[in-house]
Amino acid sequence: MHAVAEHVFVITRFYTNIYLIDTGSGLALIDTHFSPAVIGVLGKELPRHGFQLDQITHILITHAHFDHIGGLAALQNVVNARTLAHRRDAGIVRGEQPVVYARRAELKGFDWLLSHFLAATPPPARIDAELKEGDRLDEVLPGLQLVELPGHTFGQIGFWWQEKRLLIGGDVMMHLPWGLTMPTRAASPDWAATKASIHKVADMNVDVLCLGHGNPIVGNAATQVQQLAQKIGS
Ligand SMILES: [Zn+2]
Ligand SMILES: [Zn+2]
What we know:
Elements: E1 2-5, E2 8-13, E3 16-22, E4 27-30, H1 37-45, E5 56-60, H2 66-69, H3 72-78, E6 82-86, H4 87-93, H5 109-114, E7 129-131, E8 144-148, E9 157-161, E10 166-170, E11 174-176, E12 179-181, H6 191-202, E13 208-211, E14 217-218, H7 221-232
Parallel strand pairs: 4-5, 5-6, 6-7, 10-13
Antiparallel strand pairs: 1-2, 2-3, 3-4, 8-9, 9-10, 11-12, 13-14
Helix pairs in contact: 6-7
Bound molecules: zinc ion (2 copies).
């Protein structure tokens, strides 16, 4: 666990990130990793920065993929936290709807192969409030705002802290060792919307970009996002 910016921390396991925001009166956790093992990880990492597990008051979900919500149900049994997700992914979190991946007929090569391994279904979990574009989460951070970044899932969202130009963006992009890329095509049901969401981020002039996979980009992330947006076209 280490600080990305003032009030914002990242914990990385198996190339997958979860983020924590120090709200001043508690902690907001963004995403929950693959499995209940997240509880042990948080129990070990939080005290190193003077925090405790029971300080988690909010859990924010960027999107309803297994590697982001797999630990949620177990976590809800041990912490008393309000859980928020976009309205279009909330039904998946609750186990009422299946996850939608790309249509296999649209895929080629590696993406086609990968599509056969995406079947994991996380245990159903509770959602306390469903979110939409522009919703403010002032109780987490004054001015923190929800931005819809659909495509990778229909309810994929980001949490935008305008004052610091910091975006916690889930899988809107991935930050691989060789640079920013689009998310995995096999997992993304609407490829045109996925591209449009990257263009939306390119227009936001993001300074600190915190993604679900790969190191956070701290400082002038916009340059790299704009390069990717140019490369992928519309
Ligand atoms: Zn994903
Ligand atoms: Zn992911």
